[in-house]
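Notes to self, succinate dehydrogenase:
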Amino acid sequence: MKLHLEIWRQAGPNVEGHFESVDVDDAVPEMSILELLDHVNSKYVESGKEPFAFASDCREGICGTCGLNVNGRPHGPGKNTPTCQQRLHQFNDGDSLKIEPMRSAAYPVIKDMVIDRSALDRVLEKGGYVSINAGTAPDADTLHLNHEKAEFALDHAACIGCGACVAACPNGAAHLFTGAKLVHLSLIPLGKEERGKRARKMVDEVEGTFGPCSLYGECADVCPAGIPLTAVAAITKERARAFFRGKDD
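result:
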């Protein structure tokens, strides 16, 4: 399988980047996009060239570390699929692939396709935690949470923090990411103690760092965890609840 690749090359955050052309004659349809980059880097190392830098870890669609723009789309052409699970059988022999880092003003490039997504970490630092009393583990039946509510919370807790939602949004909004965290933590009993404080601080951080929601839903279309677009509504709902309940909740 022959592919023509345009791969982003950038030496550092303050250096202008460019696309570097690479022709691959022996790609295999079963390869993932990350494995394709591994293949290219192996040949670069053998020939004494500097390999391309990109981030990855588990390669099982769980960690959220990987994340690239492939032909202008976060992660790749496959809907709701992380980069590490995007296979080359989606492309045809002779196709061209433009591979670059996820693009957003909140994601400065560190090197090549490695980006700094610490802006998402700062949102979590504001309220992505629960206060509990230290001690022995409580009995399972002491926390009153029905099955439907638990499953709904887990659906939103599935967010892997890859940041594709921000890169997909033309305004660079992080409402899907933040909304998923707010929904998840508002539903579990242990998260109620700082629910209002969490909403105020997380929403303030989001609005100060990221752009406004575009209302088009591009974020949900690329989310590997399948977080529903309705999670975005938690931004307004939780903030309004915190406002009317006052500073103590």
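- The radius of gyration is 20 Å.
- Residues 118-132+140-245 form a domain with the Fumarate Reductase Iron-sulfur Protein; Chain B, domain 2 fold (CATH 1.10.1060.10).
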